[in-house]
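Data deposition worksheet. Section B asks for the primary sequence of the deposited chain exactly as it was used as input, without tags or linkers unless they were present during the calculation. Section C holds the resulting structure in token form. Section D is free text for depositor observations; keep each observation to a single sentence. Incomplete worksheets are returned to the depositor.
Section A, Depositor: J.P.
Section B:
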Amino acid sequence: MRRAIVTYFVLACSNVLAQLPSSQPRFEVSTVKPSDPQNTDSGRHMNNARLAATDQTLKELIAFAYDIEIDRVFGGPNWVASAKYDIVAKAQDDLGRRIRAADYQPMTQALLAERFKLAIHRENRELPFYVLVVAKGGAKIRLAPADSGSNSLNTNNTHLAASGIPMSMLANFLSRRLQRPVTDRTELSGRYDFKLDWAPDSSPVVRDNDRAAEPLGPSLFTALQEQLGLKLEAKKGPIEVIMIDHAERPKEN
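Section C:
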């Protein structure tokens, strides 16, 4: 029985790798270790055939690798949403020129199958969610330079700086922030550079004599529309989710 179980998961990992075209670049070397609890940085950076992920849970990595919002990832042991890891992965130098921004996701799928023994499947669930669409007047974001290989999203409590990201990555960020799935329906297929600033969720107020209290800044919903020309619409219906069938804590190296 034990041999059968081991064989199943070896095959599951092999199936993920088999789905990648033979010409698809892969990470040749990788290091995975638990994040430093004292570290306040968090995010992912992809450039020059290199992925650097800091303070990331396996659920966050799955959401990135499979281009899906984090609240559409279910199942697995409890640690997949709480244990945080730092990952550095690199493809061979001679492959660097051929690796596009879109290549990092399938490369990360293979990495997760190898290092976390990840096996998943997809199914539909009835859930409340938001759709991200272009607001009236059009989008107010600019395309990243065509020759840019960078892909990064950095955020703190009230600020987001994005470089060369698709709208699906913005939807993923909003999903984490709002704790509800967000689906990209902007029909913006490029990769974009932009910044976004909004007020804290519990914004302090200022008073001027008898004037009504006012928030110190726009809500995230308002900031999206005013600064990026995008908006969120509430919906409910069947949406595709990812179910984690198996995951193991990676061996540190």
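Section D:
The longest strand covers residues 230-246.
The chain is about 25% helix and 35% strand.
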